[in-house]
Amino acid sequence: MKLKSSFVVLPLALMALSKSGALAQTVTIPIETNKNALVLEADDKHDLSTIYFGPKLADGKEYNHLSAAYGKDNDYTGLMASAYAPAGSRNLLEPAIAITHADGNQSLDLKYVSHKVDKVSDDVSLLSIVLKDQVYNTEVTLYYKSYFKDDVIEQWSTIRNGEKGTIVLNKFASADLYLKAGSFFLTQYHGDWAKEMRPETSQITHGIKTLDSKLGTRADLFQPPVFMVSMDKPATEDEGTVLYGSIEWSGNYRTDLELDPENNLRIISGINNYASAYQLKANESFTTPPFLSVLSANGKGEASRKLQHWARNYKLLDGNGSRLTLLNNWESTYFDFDETKLAALLKDTKKLGVDMFLLDDGWFGNKYPRNGDHSGLGDWQETKTKLPNGIASLVKGAGDNGVKFGIWIEPEMVNPKSELYEKHPDWVIKQPKRDEYYFRNQLVLDLANPTVQDFVYGIVDNLFTQNPALAYIKWDCNAVIYNAYSAYLKKDQSQFYVDYMKGLYNVLSRIRTKYPKVPMMLCSGGGGRVDYNALQYFTEFWPSDNTDPLERVFIQWEYSYFYPSIASSNHVTDWSKLPIKYRVDVASMGKLGFDIVISKLPENDLKFVQNAVTNFNGFKDVVWHGDQYRLLDPRENPVASVAYVNEAKTKAIMFNYLVNYRYDEGSKAPIRLKGLDPAKQYKVKEINLYPGTNSGVDENQTYTGDFLMKVGINPKVNSGRSSVVLQLDAQ
Ligand code: DGJ
């Protein structure tokens, strides 16, 4: 990281100690962003606590009054609000860090030593705070990276072993947050294949609520790491104080939300320490992945716009760039294709008007051809019987048709029925003395092993070296980890889950060093694997295998709280009987793709999709880079409505869908827009009209942003017009 300037805020804290060993004065450390302040304080005993997280104060000097204002009278540990609660000393609550020292002792008491702030850019600052145990040579540096404009804070820690022998990290969280409010409401998510991102909101009661994953890979299949905490009352779209949080880690994670005896909320989040005690040799250090949070006093909508903006600018690969629209062959051919079929699909890609053809699963394996999901995974050579002229001829064929070519891989996985498994059984995660147990007939490769990392890197590198014009990778990951055991790690099995993920990130960062921008989709048989650590390496993710557009209205709605639409790969498929228009409109709220048989489309359907692709190219910039406003919630209304507005407020796209098919349901009243310029005049036009149907809005009329935001416009959604897209252009 390049730091523009660096300065120590205070003289070395130890110099400020009085003779009694207490700090001469408390040290108050505010982290200010555009609207908020997270304030930490080291007291006279050098204990570092979080004393405030809320709207920033007009006069920064008044942060010094916070601890007196709130008091700590009933905290007889002195550590309830600890910025990084250590285990084994005075702490009586859930710790952020627990260590076994080289001599077997399990106590830790971290004291503030010093802090400094580095200015990374005009927008970004990095605060680091050094804490030290006074008995053992254990040092922890807490990092808080604040993004001023977006009110986002990332925090993590580095734990250093200064002892002579090996220590064991039994718990090593990234964040230990402390919130004060009258009551707290948690919105968490659960799911399964095709049922991703189902929200549940409940009041947090005393004790600990844990959100976690122990799946190893695709960790969030059951429970994604993202969550919201509303303060005092459940936040709505535009009202209420809400904090969004997520650990940036693609493996096992654990977030504990503990309502303490003082009625304050502790949020301790990090890598899951389940089966993962980590050894740290003398002089080694361990850096945890970042935990991110964004706080808004104006409801869920504002919090999500800040997070999406931050993601596009700082995290998601090529977040401000463009994306390729595509035709995928998975649902139209499954494993059953050959060169002739693909040649026709390349022509269809061109006919449809999208940028690229994406060849899915089933192109590899010779001794055990991948003609189904039971064999071939791991053998990344083209199946000669299906593709005698190889991928190279397909890439060329795509070019001849004026489209690009992308390819599917699942490089972390292996079928037992494969040459890879036969040659390298020791590369496979499995228990040596137990029966194998499969998820989709496959096992996971041991990325804790550097040789396996080289192999996985080589799959991607070979594809690009042999086919320099290859434009895209869909990186799938279907299996979870059963029978966790690495032949490579031998006796250090408790490092396995962490080392697997480090190995995966190592491969991805090598790929990105050599191929910095080539678009890659983070896929996982559904949205079982999306988080902000992985998204540094990927341009998009696959929210769900469930592409029924009615389901997608709900699934994409929930994902959008945390991830920008440019990252959401939405494909039009035949999962549902809903009209093609509904399917295309829903998929257009992100990165549009198709997985249908173009040659079988009725004439008007084909005309419609071709026109919709052209329209999409006209407004995609607004959907991908604009601000998203949720207007009508499908969980509360018969109609869902979502709008995207560009930064200049000159253009907006409003999507409206019928989600309740009971008699006479529809939009009965105007729907109020948000985010427009009240002073501007907007012309409203209905686009994506199915051939032969008429617009439901008066296109000769213009409206002020003021009118559209106070009164709104009725898209006239009903059972005959179940999906309506309106485009607003400032005049
Ligand atoms: C799961 C993915 O989600 C699908 O889109 C497809 O790529 C299959 N895997 C292929 O096996």
TrEMBL record:
Enzyme Commission number, as recorded: 3.2.1.22
Glycosyl hydrolase family 36 N-terminal domain residues: 47-281
A single MF term (Gene Ontology): alpha-galactosidase activity
Enzyme class label: hydrolase
Gene3D superfamilies linked: Aldolase class I, alpha-galactosidase from lactobacil brevis, Golgi alpha-mannosidase II
Taxonomic lineage of the native organism: Bacteria, Pseudomonadati, Bacteroidota, Sphingobacteriia, Sphingobacteriales
Protein name: Alpha-galactosidase
Signal sequence residues: 1-24
Binding site for substrate: W193, D360, D361, R440, K474, W475, D476, C477, N478, C523, D545
Source organism per UniProt: Mucilaginibacter corticis
